[in-house]
Write a structure and sequence with these properties.
six-stranded mixed β-sheet; Threonyl-tRNA_syn_edit_dom_arc; alpha/beta; zinc ion binding
Length: 136
């Protein structure tokens, strides 16, 4: 799994088109202020170590939120951080599990709808911790 984390002034997105026919129909435009954003890439090898990947992802996200002094995160599936890709079903299941575990820890979690392409705009802060890459 790959995580690309950002400390942002805002994250704006708008659904553009559905890429997975089995997901529900969603049209949403949203702007989330003063948040962290994590682009999540689930890899094929993660499918054999699901619980470890989820636990490590949650731990890394909590660590990052503590470092940037935030209690809010946007989860964004982003299948462009590695040439190894899990199945879409696995990626969706992992992201839902991460979301649930973070919410259970009192963190405000937003997720962009899975299975869509988006327009998005992101204003990343300038500090060195505003941009962090983690490999699980």
């Amino acid at each position: 799994m790959k995580l690309l984390l950002f400390d942002v002034e805002y994250f704006w997105f708008d659904t553009h088109c559905k890429t997975i026919e089995t997901v529900g129909d969603v049209e949403i435009e949203e702007r989330i202020e003063d948040t962290a954003v994590v682009f999540i890439h689930a890899e094929a090898e993660d499918e054999e170590r699901m619980s470890k990947v989820i636990k490590s992802a949650v731990g890394n996200i909590k660590w990052y939120l503590n470092k940037v002094n935030k209690n809010k995160i946007v989860l964004h599936s982003f299948a462009h951080l590695s040439s190894s890709k899990s199945s879409p079903e696995f990626a969706m299941e992992v992201i839902v599990s991460i979301e649930e575990k973070l919410k259970n820890k009192g963190i405000n979690v937003y997720s962009v709808p899975f299975g869509y392409l988006y327009q998005f705009s992101i204003h990343v802060k300038g500090e060195s911790l505003a941009k962090v890459f983690k490999e699980i």
